[in-house]
Structures
1.
Amino acid sequence: MGTVLQFVVLGLGLGAVYIGLGSGLLLVHRATGMINFAQGAIATWGAYVFAELRNTGTLVFPIGSVDLGEPPSTATAHVIALGFAVHYLAFRPVQQNSVLAQVVVSVALLITIQALVVLRFGPNKIDVESFVPGGTVTLFGAAIPTRELFIALVMIVLAALVWCYMRFTRMGIATRAASENERAAVLMGFSPSWLAAIAQAGAAFVGTVSVILASSLTGLNADWFGLLVVPALAVLLVAKLESIPVLVVAAIGLGAFQSLIGLLVTQPWWPVWAQSGLDQVIPFAVVMVILFVTGKRLPTRGATQQIRLPDVPIPRMRPLVAIGLLVAAGLALAFTTGTIRFGLTTSLILSLLALSYVVLTGYLGQISLAQSAFAGAAGFVLSKASVDWGIPFPISMVLCALLATALGMLVALPAFRIRGAQLAIVTLAAGLGIERFIFNNYSLSPPEGNPIADASLFGLNLAVREGRDLSRLAFSLMVLVIVAVVIWVFVRVASGDMGRAFLAVRANERAAESSGINVRRTKVIGFALSAFVAGIAGCLIGFSRGQLSAESFTVMAGLQLLAVAYLGGITTIGGSLVAGLIGPLGISYVLMRTWLDLGEYYELVLGLALVLTAILNPVGIAGAVRHQVEFVRRKLRRPSASPPVDGAPRRTEEASHV
Amino acid sequence: MSDAPVLSVSGLTAGYNGVPAIRDLSLEVRAGEVVALLGPNGAGKTTSLLAMVGLVPLLGGEVRVLGAPLGRRRPHQLARNGVLLVPDDRGLFPSLSIREHMRLAARRRDARHEQEVLERFPALLDLGSRHAGLLSGGEQQMLAIAKALLARPKVLIVDEMSLGLAPKIVQDLLPMIGRLARADGIGVVLVEQHIELALQVADRGVVVNHGRAVLAEDAAALLADRDLVEEAYFGTGRFAEPLGETA
């Protein structure tokens, strides 16, 4: 009993962070209708700045820093400023955009801030001196730490303040009002943007306080605290995105429960394979159950206007373009060697991963943040299949991709009931659960790595390495062929009935259903197809590395991939090719690292570029290029069609701007 | 009452995605005056109103509010300056109580003014803690108007108040708006489907059809000549559109 109580109290530290992040998420969702996936990262940044200020008296900005001499007594202002900056620079510009753009902006913010933390404060954990008095009280014969109790208490008080703000202040009531009917709030003289800015600042403050307090227990670590947003999101869903009291109870419950699992797995009868990562699987399970029970009753915001989704051009078979691209890619691979060729090959593989986003997000409109988990699952099974079970090459790859497909269909189940940002939460939780429970589980995937046998077909050696050649042409060409085949299949599917059905579901599920499309079946097929493509990509990543480690398929890696897929253009094949070129470890990254020596800035650049893309240009790089091409074509066509009159060219230019 | 119009619209053209839904609408409202904007569905009435408060951008023409052009003022700033639109969805927040609506409506708390307004709507007096979503249609409409009055409007724009209300309630509410306008010196623009009732309350009437103002007259004159209004409404007789350019 005493030990159990001790562990429950130890879990309060975690619970306090969930309260901090969760009530911030709730506040922001109430004020903007958006889910801020960067909430944890923002709070972590705030805590780092605070720790640095306290330790050295230096106030660190994203660029530059100010030496204040001695540590100031209060450091609230920078957190408030952070909240305002987040609102005005990232959230407000996408307020009227699609849910996808909103999710992408907050994911981009997450990537950017995580990268900034590492750049500005270094990758290592920072120990934070506690200003909460330590000590213990004895209860039921066990020493109960008072620090955790104190921290939880502080956060409960802060959450209560948030609750009071929304309940009793005019601004808070207006925030709730605007979440129900934004136009009516405007007509009563409230600026939703200002309300949202205040909410964002409050959220940044509460979250930062929770991370500052909790980091005095564990030390400050960007990755860890940044991704605590996932269980906080689980808690938020339990509270149905509305109720602070429920949120507080759920947060403490989850924290205590996770801590208890830590106690449970040390029991001798507990199976070894289930020792690691279980604490992450539980938030996912919680989210799944909650959503299945209450799925349709989660509140959605009354939209003020019809939101336009990014354009989807129907792909056409263009043999000349296809052959041209194939020859160009083949030549590029043939005339390069070493790291450059390897970078090109990686880019090809990445474009497949991006294509899996094009299928699912671009065409079907479902936001999945678990694609890298699908790829990873296929890769890890490939290791077993090729080494332990000795299954030969093409069959092993297809089998593993089919396994990823099954996983994808499983994740499709919640998509029956939920959509938009909430689906993103579930898939993010699923991805994190798979990462922690399978990839990081030493009894399932040994820490020394998962070797993958080299591929060969009809006696042809398709290994990526041989002797001193680190990147063989045969392997690269194999990748090229596989990518070409997958893209060909995609074009066939996307331009046929199935592609139209995807687009119909994306545009309006009810309308699709009423015109005879089986929405659920379409969603399952979409998830399956997308997971299959991701699985193939995962296998190819496995072959190209020769062995797999968990780092290749972390949730953060998956988020980066969503980032590049969106950046390239989430609705087109061309977009996925561009995404491959700019993707992590792809050719651009290799060039950036070898020529410019800027490899460490890659993630920062990526995150910032993504924020800008989501705000300015929802069709991505490929879409922008296509618009330009069409624009030039129109310009070339128009003057020849009309007789050359004075001033005519100028008029056509004006006309084509419209 | 001064003679300067509190709201003057000249040549207003507004619409969506660059396509006008209303073209070249002009009207003036003075303090204490009620102008009824009439017309069939899709004539462009609601768009005109939204454009007057800046919720739909102007494609042409000018709107002057309280003597100053609409300019770059945002819709919420206009509301603070005393230009209040009661939209056709009533602009209420279903999960907020009546008291919370009142709290939001008044920029400064003024118990006396609140009491005065509520006394005009006795039905609301005992329902303070009830959520707006649980009120009847008539009560909701009263709340919508009461909260607009609480903000001390100089211009009150009411869109299709009668929508979804029993005729009996409309017969009570519309004349009350007219009395309020005269008593408090508020310039009122009413969009209505109940032509006769609206014209009885209004000083002047403007009939719009197919995105154009086709008729603007004193309300009394319009009431007297039912045929004229009917023809304007249906685009027949004197208001028939020419069929093509050769006609």
2.
Amino acid sequence: MNWLYNIVEKLRPQFEEGGKFHSLHSLFDGFDTFLFTPNTTSKRFGAQIHDATDSKRTMIIVVLALVPAMLFGMFNIGYQHFLATGEIVAGGLTAALFWKAFAFGLLALLPFIIVSYVVGLGIEFTVAQWKKEEIAEGFLVTGFIIPLIVPIDTPLWMVAIATAFAVIFAKEIFGGTGYNIFNVALVTRAFLFFAYPTKMSGDKVFVRTDGTWGWDNVQPLVDGFTGATPLGQMATAQEATVQLHDTVGGSLGFLDAMNGLYPGSVGETCVWAILLGACLLLLTGVASWKTMLSIFVGGGLTAFLFNISGIDNAVANTPWYMHLVLGGFAFGAVFMATDPVTSARTECGKWIYGFLIGVMAITIRVLNPGYPEGMMLAILLMNAFAPLIDWCVVQANINKRMKRATVKQ
Amino acid sequence: MKLSDKTREVLLGPLNANNPVVVQVLGICSALAVTVQLKPALVMGIAVTIIVAMSNVIISLLRNTIPMRIRIIVQLVVVAALVTLVSEVLKAFAYDVAMQLSVYIGLIITNCILMGRLEAFAMSNNVGDSLLDGLGNGLGYAIILIIVAFFRELLGSGTLMGFQVVPQWCFEHGYVNNGMMMMPAMALILVGCIIWVHRSINKEEKK
């Protein structure tokens, strides 16, 4: 890496005060600290806590944890597409077809990643330059999550508008990275969901039936094709119980739901890939196991209560363990709810925060047929309440200690 | 006609530096409720302007005879009478807009701008100034409504005053109206943006 370091050092004077490209110094600074260590480190005198991880390292770990879900999502995009066109029949997957499906998914997903990063980082860099601040690294993770939580058929200009909206109104207005109340990636999705509902729900958007980059553009779809997600099937079912099925009509059980070969937002379908990411996050201590666990407990318990409640619709009757592996529940629990900025910070608060997310998500799924997936709204809602939860926990602690005090105030 | 400094301040101040909506943050509720389309917003703006100006004049005329202890009731009666009048006129001559505005015409009576101007200005100023103050505040309110409604109708429905503005070929090439613009939440964000722009322009004046 020495040659790169030399180039950066040689360019440095150009970007400093009085240099030719001073107006772009925040861009330079951003790349410099991204590639190498920051120049400003803690002082050598006094008591200091040193830690190898700064927020850039933390962000990189989250991005790494997201990679399995993304890779699987790419394959699944292609797999669903070729199932729809009949090129792959269920169970007949060969190595050649696997790589073809993966390549198709890669080409389909790549524009989303590029658009999300270009728009988001563009705004971040502009704002940093304007406010004469250093570039914050907060968008690294957000920009990576956004492509994974939208349907693959979302038009790119919508993704661009939604990303811009979320970065400006959910983050920069509050003061930038680390000050936002709501999870920026989820605000992006919520904006898309409310602004362009026809492109974000229903059974037409979760499987790419057109080609990508002109590849495989016009194809007759196979008989019996349906692009409905399992949650969509539940929400629209007329009967009291529903047999979930995948794209070409095969039945969808618990293990199939874990394996994730069914239509859905790009990164959310395969629970194994998400678990892999969760392991990395927990081993490195980036995410809190309390939040994750309590979400699953809250969701499972609520779904179980609905199972035995006697409410007679398909969503309420779906077994509780299915609720935890379908749709965005696992993805949201692992990657979105544990966002350290927007979640509760007190240890006891994390239990309450996570538990209520689980409860809200399943409640929305069951009781509101307009929202087949409740995870997004549940997390956003609890984001708003996280500071209140923290405040209550701290107050309770103060009261407990005051009672113990022997000297009265 | 050359306006004196005070008249200018009374009439034009509320349009910008002392705007009732973006500076005093009054009358927000109706600004969110009636701005989905430009036409109702325009009608609402005119209605409020007329009512504020008229009630300002009437209260200013009565200001020396109203006992202080019951002045709020007197003000309410005057405003209520005017609101009813405007509501009936709208129903008679612009029925469809009156239906679109539904309860919000009647709710003008609860608009904080009205009581605010009556208490703060009309009770202690002469008739001519009160009229100008009412007109200025009404127009200041209307101008914000029109700006918000312009963006909401343009981006949310692709139309302006009911005429299609976004050309058809845009829709054929995949453009979709923004449903978020139809929601009150987005109106609040738009008002916030107007306040943002307004504050950054008027930063020097404040100091």
